[in-house]
Amino acid sequence: MDVLTGTAIAKLAFDEFIKSGAGELAKKSVGGAIGQLQSTIKKRFAGKNPKAEVAIATLEADNNGAGDKTAALNKLSVYLDDEMDDLLFAENLQQLAQQVINIGKQEQHNATFTINAKDNARVNAINELNATTVNFGDRRP
Q1: How many domains are contained in the chain?
Q2: What is the pLDDT of residues 47-62, one digit of tens each?
Q3: Between vectors from CA 72 to CA 69 and to CA 73, what angle results, nearest 5°?
Q4: Cα gap 41→93, rounded to integer Å
Q5: In which domain, by residue range, is 68 found?
Q6: Is the pLDDT of residue 99 over 50?
Q7: What is the largest CA-CA distance in the chain?
């Protein structure tokens, strides 16, 4: 497992709020892992660091612009980096972050495409192809 910094973890946990306003992907929570990661970060700062709490609230607010959210993410990253000195907390966060990363990778790899090209149609696939079975043409092996 790679060691993730507080900055990388904050970005992983809250970046979707910047990308899509209300953070639709963050709300879906990639199997709940992002939500758990966010919750762990919020609990860490609750009542302990008002500036971090304001940064989190800014990230989660629907009415703030991307510039405000980016600044808030940068501030939260600094606060979280400082908290990573607590090795038990850091290890817990890194495990949660790794779960989010692994779930994201798994969802990427479980894509299935069925393309029917008829009447001499041409099909172009633009991307990397990693598969165990690829069938082209009318005959199947």
Answers
A1: 1
A2: 999 999 999 999 888 7
A3: 85
A4: 8
A5: 6-109
A6: yes
A7: 67
